User: Fold these one by one.
Assistant:
Number 1:
Amino acid sequence: MPDDTVVTVAAGWGVLAAVLLCALAVFAVALDAVLSARAQGAGGGWAAPLSRAARLLRQRRRTTVAADTLLWRAGGAGMFVGAFLMVAVIPLGRWTLSDLSVGVVWFNAVDVMVWALVWLVGWGANSTHSLVGGYRFLAHGLAYELPLMFALVAPAIAAGSLRVADVAAAQDDLWFVVWMPVAFVVYLIGVMGFSVWGPFAPALASDIAGGVLAELSGVDRLVFLAGRYMFLAAGAAFSVPLFLGGGAGPVLPGWAWVLVKTVAVLAVLVWLRRKVPLMRPDRFMEIGWILLLPAAVVQDLVVSLIVVWEG
Amino acid sequence: MLIGIVFWVLAVVAVAAGVAVFVADSMARATYALAVSFIAVGVQILLLQQSYLGLITILMMVMEMAVMAVYMVMFMGMNPALMPMDMTHGKKTAIGASVGAFVLLAGGALLIPWPQRRGEPPDELTHALGLEIMGEKMLVMAVIGPVMVATIVAGVVLAAGRTRYDRFGDDLHRRPGDDPQSGGVGR
């Protein structure tokens, strides 16, 4: 077992955290492109992050009539910045940027920001399709957010702390994923939700001409899409201290295990996009409230009972 | 020093964003100006080292403003929400009431003889606050919670135009129910 004490590193190391997050996002883009290419019987795709970014950087910015530019740009830039805020509380082995006593709530507050950000991007363009996309996302949000919140509660109850490092340290004996699998699954659904990913992509779907993305072009589109992949990566990274034992593992040091587990979860999330159908917001509303929410609450109850039982 | 600067910057942002709510001519800008104002207040609470309350304030307010955007389109007929519009109405009453309330509260804050601090804050502030709020009143809270939920459910049931007879037929035997919007579980 690695040492449980967590060291708060100087803020300058945030640059390294940002670089790691960007690298994870690039990996997610590349993996998605490779899987797409393979599904169509072609090879390659690993260069996709580079070629797509280069294309978007060269693209001219599209303007629309009476666009609310302030809110439009704020939404896109917020997606990019938000993911960095999220990783600030994730310990990398025994180092963390911020050993916040309520790190789990911090994560939750940042993921709720996405509600506002995606809607703002949809609103800003003054385009019907964009706005419909924004509202589709909000409808999804209403369905996935509460189950996600109750899924976050389970590890916090078991650890008796909202500090992310404490939650990771509480899994010395047994990873939380083993005895709270429902919370883990609901959490991953929530991560796909706030990343507008996989089944939650109708906000960006082609039946409404790209939805929120419809009028986004050039660097604005690049920033929004990068933010989306980074949120997916940050969500995968947060699952490691929350459910997967943090930096626990044989041979390798803690930081390496955190990265290995993050990459594994991220790869599964990227792979799932092609395996799970798009969820219509009206349909998913009932799944969220009638299946996922009670399941998460029962999971919390079971965890609470076990915690009380073991005293 | 640094905390002082942050405090004043946040204070100015909070008030300026609050003013922007009434100056903006767009419902979206007014909504999110209010969100920015609340976020600034939430960070102020973080400065008071009440991390949980500060973050919860930010979380709740951002979510609330996003939900407000839903209501904006649901309940505003002919969607004026999507067009430029004046954010104020009943101006004289509103200005009178708000100036009066401000003078009362600010005057009270300045003139009241504040007591001296007794004792030291406990280490786990949030924990102590929770005990202070809930300790004595746990039973009341435990009762009020279900009553509130029951009230909400009853309110929705009374307000809804459709009843279970519309869903399940006159003898309540029709399955799955006849819903205007079919859900994903197939009830």
Number 2:
Amino acid sequence: MLSVSGLGVTLRQRRIVDDVSFEVGDGRVCALIGPNGAGKSTLARAVSGLLPVAAGQVRIDGNPLNVSDRRALARRLAYLPQNTTPVPCSVFDAVLLGRKPHVSWRPGTEDRRMAREVLGEMRLLPLADACVTRVSGGEFQKILIARTLVQGSQVLILDEPINHLDIRNQIEIMGLIARLTQSRGLSTIVVLHDLNLALRYADTVLLIREGRALFCGNSQDISPQDLSRAYDIPIDIREDAQTRHVLY
Amino acid sequence: MPPLQKRILFVSALGLAMAGLVCTGLRLGASMAPLSELGRALLRDGAHPDLEYFVWNLRMPKVVAALAVGGALAVNGVVLQTVLRNPLASSFTLGQSQGAAFGACYAMIALASHSLNAHISMVALGAFGGSLCASACILLLASVRGMTSHGLILAGVGISTFFGAATMSLQYFATDSQVAATLFWTFGDLSKGAWTEALVAAGTTVLGLVAALRLGWDYDALQWGDVHAAGLGVPVRKIRILSVLIASLLVAVATAFYGVIGFVGLIAPHMVRLLFRHCGHGFLITASALFGATFLLGADLLAQSLLYPVLLPIGILCSFTGVPIFLFLLLRRSVQHA
């Protein structure tokens, strides 16, 4: 379980994230939503130990993160930044790189087996020898997610993993994240812009604006007023038998 | 052809070419010694004492130096290009060589050790200090937010010009013999050193190569960007500083003993990347080192025979070969970004 308490981040004498607390349980997906400039990516990076924290604490299973040991941290928490540019290497090598925190010299047979297993699970094995720069946008995002899974961490933090993807790929990847989080018992934070996908696939929602949490709780409990207050536009939520739809 | 077979074929071809060039390098003098005589000279059977002397004391140290310096500069190029994420980076384009040249000239002139053989360790230390100064400038500039790869190369031009001017200032106040010594030294010539220099250069190259290979997987992660690498547990800042230190050491030893030799660090990695577009850094470093070593040895033999009996300094030949390749890479990148 990931728990964040009273987290504050200050960059260039400006408070970007202020007193944010939340928890993500095992096998649960938390959607981190909010308008542009709300501090979502800063919060994601701070929780990942990639930005210095001015206040508060991040704990995994009750143990505080030790950001000075990057390797040990990466074994417990995997972070996927937004807007990643493909690098010319094979899909298999790109995914195998996820074993980096566990290996100091070169990856061994067991590491290769794990990479192959995740590629199979994500139906990427036929692409294993292809060059990363030649795959589609959706496949590329899946490759990056596969890498975070190979990392074997208990916590996944994915910063806008469905950016620039068409709706079919968005649904496919969000479904995949939800399924893998549940089957592997992970605690996953996904930074999202699409409110409908957030309500559809996330168990909990953290809504922030100007670095402060406006709502933190079960995705079924978020109200249109919370969303309207965050985005400064009238927003409505309609419910049917299966899901809730955000209208704006 | 499967990637593994292609790699084996490439390394084997380089190995064969290197063996052929080593053999030619040991035979090549005023006249080409027959293979049988070379074999006997190598065994030191006393049949050809003159040839034995030339092979063991003049030609072999030069061949070892060519292989060591070529490998060192190639590894330096791969390391700099990776940690600075700049395909145009090399010791020559970023001013490291000129920094080392200044440091060595300072040791020769200001510390009054103009006789190279007498104070070679002082010259080497001076070169290392100079290349470290240039590396510190590069690291500082590379960390500036928004600095583009073209911007970094322009900064490299500035650093080179600064160290060039500093070297000229030293020479202006030096005696005629000191000026002659430093000027001849900056040409870049592999026949300057003897066994000691060649072995120190070879040892440093092997150390640098092993260190770079040890960091190979970190470099694979760094290719994806600093945030990605940090997320994968790579201590980015530490690796970057360590890598620039390794690169500085490699270029400092090469420059201290043999003068400024440019563009090998640019040519070798790009030739390997051209053939193996998506290889990891483990292979890239090894193959570039092999290519750099073979290329410099080949270039040195060409420099010896092109205007025989005039022996051209290797630095000049490398620059003539390297500048068109550098301009091609620069133009290709500029067109891609336009």
